Amino acid sequence: MTISRLHNTNGAVENGLERSRAIGTRATTIAVTGIRTTIGRGLMAALDADPSVEAILCFDIVGPQTPCQKAKVVAVDLTRGDCVDVMARHLAEHRVRALVHLAFRDSPTLSPGASHELESVGTMRVVRACLEGGVRKIVSWSRSWLYGARADAPALLDESQPLRARRTDRFFADKMDAERDVLSFGAPGRARIATLLRTAPLVDPHSPGMIFHLLRDTRIPSIAGFNPMWQCVHVEDAVSAFVQALRLDVPGAINVVSPGVLPLGEARRLAGHRGLKLPRSLATALVGGLWLSGSCRVPPSLLDYLQFPCVADGGRAERLLQLTCKHSTSSTLTEAAQCHGAPASSPAHP
Description:
single chain; alpha/beta
């Protein structure tokens, strides 16, 4: 079948917002893509323990990493065009009303074509399958970093701000394309809900990912003369946000962030970094060489976030998702450092 890109809409409008229960009132089946992502693993456990969830329809190449009694795995590869018919059929058969889309890479890759097929084209296919399968709601993962790190960034970036991350970097461009298609699914007047959860840099203290690597790797320098404010979010709080987004109908983009911010230098010290600083030009050359050699998980474009601020406002999640994060930026990084043997110190500004 032919897959066509949907038109863009602004899904962040709060006027006339209707909030109702999607899970919690009767047994239901929830569909999930990306079950092995950092958030996916936690969400699977949360849904498995929820008595109102009858089954979890898992669209992935492989099954869950840990036992999940409610999981029903459908072998689907989002990079293949035939996945649309397979997904739509199972969504309709199981009368799925809500799908959580998490099939995004945790970190950049040296194979941007593969990422594009998974994230940009793959999301387009997921949306088409949901339309054909009668799904009412999509809750999709996105990143607060899509706002971009810039010298002229507001102190707090709310959901009305434009996305100004580098479109020349596929890690960002594909996620922007995905946002566009998910929001189009929930265009006003179509009786469908599209929720985008833009998480701050995600940290799982027990499984260090790209963000903790970026902060801790002593080969990645800070930028001389710059010390922007930083924030992150604990994976447990991110999972709670997805659970709440399934329970409540809140259309549009929502920032998910831990309370509190830290100067980058303090955040890096908490993670175990020991203060190498270079001018941006030298830092770019160094990190670019490490990236191209495959010995570093961070491309030079991410140095923007070590030079300029990108701090998101989490007020909308608190008001509309009733989300209360249990972990601050400081406590999240401290926990991660302790889990991985870093000599953490107490932050000057909690």
